[in-house]
């Protein structure tokens, strides 16, 4: 039996991971530490089974609270920490960058310090492909684990800084860490400020879908279940101190995403509208995930052709889940009142 502390376990990816781990590891226990800010939602785990609840604990708290984190690790005799907790929406970071630095950098350091003091067996940090910057739309390159960092937004830079802190705790204090960089996730329980749930919930309400003017910018997409399985594989067989990329090789533009959602819902493409690009809007991300495939035998299992319609229908069938969240999704894309336009790109 193992005991896992999952930080940010009430968010989109964290809650999917909690459910995934409890399903696949019937003797393990999971403690979820989450502050329940706007994107942390108890409803994401409301359907845990009675059996799961015997192996699940929730603690409301801030990862920056070192004493709290250390107490949880000691009281529950935690073996593994998986750090999902982060501010993660690029558009919000344009409007309030300080919040991202506080949580993503100082919060990560506090959890690492608690792990160091308690002698935790593994600290796994969940990062993002966005720390590398972006690629030209016509580039043949992809990001590798040794690609130099070149973050371009406050969110990206906060995650890049956190990664450096994680590696420093391995090099200086020998905390047994692993890192994973992931591409854009999609799937159930994603807060409706991100592109797929935003476009889907707008379409379901007959509200225009706000595409950035550079609507051919592309992202690589991975279903959240495949992200969870990749982290599982790293925890089971990954090498301490190493970084692994979790990607699919499947790229879609903003325009293709919007068209795909409207097609699933049988709605006209005239629902698309165009807004000004977010400052620092990256053009393209693509990860080289050959290392984890080769060394750990991991591969994604959910195709985008199956996953996108399934995800859209999940939101279509659950308005009671997403409608209460709309008032919290308060960033208006294209209205960058306090942010000067980026230049030179």
Architecture overview:
It is a single chain. A seven-stranded parallel β-sheet has the order 3-2-1-4-5-6-10, sandwiched between helices. Strands 7-9-11 form a three-stranded mixed β-sheet. It has a two-stranded parallel ribbon with strand order 8-12. Helix 3 (66-75) runs parallel beside helix 5 (97-118) and helix 7 packs across helix 11. With 345 residues, the protein is an alpha/beta fold. Helix 1 links the parallel strand 1 and strand 2 (29-34). The chain is built from twelve helices and twelve strands. The model is unreliable at 336-345 (pLDDT under 50).
Short description:
The chain is α/β, with parallel strands linked by helices. Helix content is 39%, strand content 17%. The chain has a seven-stranded parallel sheet, sandwiched between helices.
What's the pLDDT, averaged over the residues?
A: 92
Query: Main sheet: which strands, in order across?
Result: 3-2-1-4-5-6-10
Largest beta-sheet characterization: 7 strands, parallel
Helical stretch tally: 12
Beta-strand percentage range: 15-25%
Structural class of the helices, strands and pairings? Answer: alpha/beta
End-to-end gap: 52 Å
DSSP helix fraction: 25-40%
Coarse shape: globular
List how many beta strands DSSP finds. 12
Spell out the helices and strands N to C: EHEHEHEHHEHEEHEEHEEHEHHH
Radius of gyration: 19 Å
Query: Uncertain runs with pLDDT below 50, 5 residues or more?
Result: 336-345
């Amino acid at each position: 039996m193992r005991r896992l502390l999952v930080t940010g376990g009430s968010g989109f990816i964290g809650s999917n991971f909690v459910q995934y781990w409890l399903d696949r590891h019937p003797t393990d226990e999971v403690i979820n530490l989450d502050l329940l800010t706007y994107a942390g939602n108890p409803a994401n785990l409301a359907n845990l089974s009675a059996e799961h609840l015997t192996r699940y604990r929730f603690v409301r708290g801030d990862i920056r609270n070192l004493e709290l984190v250390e107490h949880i690790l000691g009281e529950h005799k935690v073996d593994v920490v998986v750090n999902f907790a982060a501010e993660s929406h690029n558009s919000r970071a344009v409007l309030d960058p300080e919040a991202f630095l506080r949580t993503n950098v100082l919060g990560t350091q506090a959890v690492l310090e608690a792990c160091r003091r308690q002698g935790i067996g593994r600290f796994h940090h969940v990062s993002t492909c966005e720390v590398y910057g972006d690629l030209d739309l016509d580039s043949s390159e992809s990001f590798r684990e040794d690609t130099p960092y070149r973050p371009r937004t406050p969110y990206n830079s906060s995650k890049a800084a956190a990664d450096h802190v994680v590696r420093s705790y391995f090099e200086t204090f020998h905390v047994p860490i692993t890192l994973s960089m992931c591409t854009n996730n999609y799937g159930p329980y994603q807060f409706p400020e991100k592109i797929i749930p935003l476009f889907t919930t707008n379409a379901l309400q007959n509200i225009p879908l706000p595409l950035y003017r550079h609507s051919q910018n592309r992202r690589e997409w991975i279903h959240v279940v495949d992200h969870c399985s990749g982290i599982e594989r790293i925890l089971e067989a990954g090498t301490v101190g190493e970084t692994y990329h979790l990607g699919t090789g499947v790229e879609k533009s903003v325009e293709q995403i919007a068209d795909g959602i409207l097609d699933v819902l049988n709605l006209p493409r005239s629902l698309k509208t165009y807004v000004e690009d977010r400052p620092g809007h990256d053009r393209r991300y693509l990860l080289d995930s050959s290392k984890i495939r080769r060394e750990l035998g991991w591969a994604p299992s959910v195709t985008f052709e199956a996953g996108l319609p399934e995800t859209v229908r999940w939101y279509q069938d659950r308005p009671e889940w997403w409608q209460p969240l709309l008032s919290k999704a308060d960033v208006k894309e294209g209205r960058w009142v306090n942010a000067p336009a980026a230049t030179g790109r």
